[in-house]
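Pasting two entries for a bug report.
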Amino acid sequence: MDQTTIRRLSDEATQVLLNKPGTASSNAGGWMMISTILIEAWDLYAIAFVLIFVREEYHPTAAQLGLATAAVQGGALIGALLGGIIADRLGRKKVFILTMVLFIVLALAQGFSQNIWDLIIMRLLIGIPLGSDISNGYAYIMESMSKGKREQMGSRWQFMFGLGEVFAIIIITIMYMAGMPHDILWRVALALGAVPAVILLIGRLKLPETPLSLLQRGQFVRAKEVSRQLFDDPLDMLPNQDVKLEKPKLNDFLKVIWADPIKRRATIFGWISNACQGAEFTAWGFYLPVILVLSGVGVSSSGSIVGSNIVTALIFCLATLSGFVAPLMLPRIGHRGLAMWGYGLAFLGLMIGGFALQYDWKILIVIGACILMWGHYWDASNGMTICSMVAPSRFKATASGFGYVFVKAASFFGAFVFPMVSEALGKSGATFAVSILSLIGFLAAKFILPEMYGYVETEEVPDGAPGR
């Protein structure tokens, strides 16, 4: 068969699968992929609670402390871009198994760091499999679940992120209350991320490759088998033989996205939203434990930070509830409404927090943090989903990786710069500066994002156009 016929059959099968109801197997795969966020949340947030102990042992400069927190974001930026491209070429399963193995090894290794630069380098390296796994995982969700269900699953990442943060807070607080030496505590806290990663790796070994990924690589025989398993459809329109398909090109991805106004506007919003929410969180929410301790919220007269940790845990329990509610709101207010409400509340929370820090109103610091976190867990829920949802299957992981690059670039910037901005402008001034990001996200949702709920990707291009 010529390439035009092969592509036509592949596209026909793709449209069938994108509109099929899912099965128990497809739902299980979606949960297995989104659970990666638990591991990332543990690694990202555990260090926020042990920064004080790292500072006690290594006495880093403000720049070194910023690098120690931001390095994992920089590594994830690299991993998101490379991992997405590799997954589109080699398939989903090979990549998500490799990334979990690398994470387990590197998570344990960072617990044995000998100096601040060891820690920075380890955290840079550990970010690479994390970023790669997220971009690959979103592609898996969008290709293995049914319409509507895949959107809701993709938007659960903030719920899973909240769970990971709460687990980190509780376990680290228990170790602190048990009297574990501080130089041991922070090492154990960072290395513990390997435990859920091992469990997730074992669970993933039985997951199949996605039929859409197989289709786009010409493996029709396996695609028919996996489609029967995930969607109860043998794809009878496909021949019972494998074929050779041309490899997708990166520049074709951008051309295809830019050629369609809906894809273009949705993708631009996704990139803006991912950048705004990434910096919004790491510049304020990530440093929340430090902000509360330095502001004296929950700190006892003896200097114990247990009370501050409990306040932080309660705030993140509320945030986790927000992350759980966000996907349920999609059928009611759509992606556009979810983003506008989220960014609007985040802006309000940051403004309240800024004034509260300026005038040392401790209760308002907590109220502002609660409003911010509820809003953030809505505004951050759908950027990745939208980027991945609108892309053709042969570019699905690439699109997810591109989208996640904006999250991690902004997160790296926020985590690295916030300590220095706080030093220059004070905590309140830095908070007001962060609120600008929330305002930009709100405006992007209102004026750029078309409503995307229920969207099914189609690609109508003539022969000879990119990808044909």
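Entry 2 (this is the one that rendered wrong in the viewer):
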Amino acid sequence: MKVFSGNANMPLARAITSYIGIPLGKSTVSTFPDGETFVKIDENVRGEDTFVVQSTCPPTNHHLMELFIMIDALRRSSASRITAVLPFYGYARQDRKDQPRVPITAKLVANLLVASGANRVLTMDLHAQQIQGFFDIPVDHLYAAPVIYEYLKTKDFPNLVVVSPDVGGIKMAHAYAQVLAADLAIVAKRRKSPTEVEAVSVIGEIDGKTVLLVDDMTETAGTLTMAAKTLKERGASSVLACVSHALLNDQGVERLRNSDIDEVITTDTVQRSAVEGVKVTTLSVAGLLGEAIKRINSNSSVTSLFRFNGGMTS
């Protein structure tokens, strides 16, 4: 088994290989002056079970091309199996035609991964779980929930209620509510633009309670901050946000600084610079991904990785 990495999240790749107990595979991934990506695998991979770790965080298109080219290089170097490890799967929000004459880009990315030579995909907390069906190759879909739960259970949150910031996140919020033995509530929202949302109403009792907002990803933090503001107005004593993938651009950071959110709990699926003025707790999923890679390599079951606190992520 050999694990390689693109430039999207090198610290996570090193943490994964450290957990597995092997060195990170040697490769050269650089850019020509005109912006084209150059890749060279610097060690023999003939007949090897290979894994390429690459989150598709910004710049998304550049990191996707790195991934495709690395997979092609491994295929042409006679690797026996190539698994694309995408801790964060970009373009997942474009998973359907929600208006006329638009693409289904999540499916296009799936096609490109297969065309480049990937034999298997390992990913985490997809924005829409049906994206697994876009592939005709095996997909192992992990959840960050077990890692986040281990952190949450060390805290003593009084009168905890788990809140989904939109209707689409109810299943994820329900899973957290079950394992944390907490109540469940929902914020109904209306999206005004790709960066602006408007909270419409709150379904559930949140007055005087500690609120845990649960979402799969945030970039501009519009949904989270608007939900937090609405919940505070409805009497929530404190608001925490739990997000699997926190990409956080400048607008998102500024919104969080001026928001009612006391703490953002996230993972290291995407690499980002330090955020000043916002309490961000980053938990590592390297152990979870490393264990999955070990089990894929040995053809063992990964089902137990979905279980935590006697329950199972849905």
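Dev reply: Rendering is fixed now. As a check, the viewer should reflect this: The radius of gyration is 20 Å.
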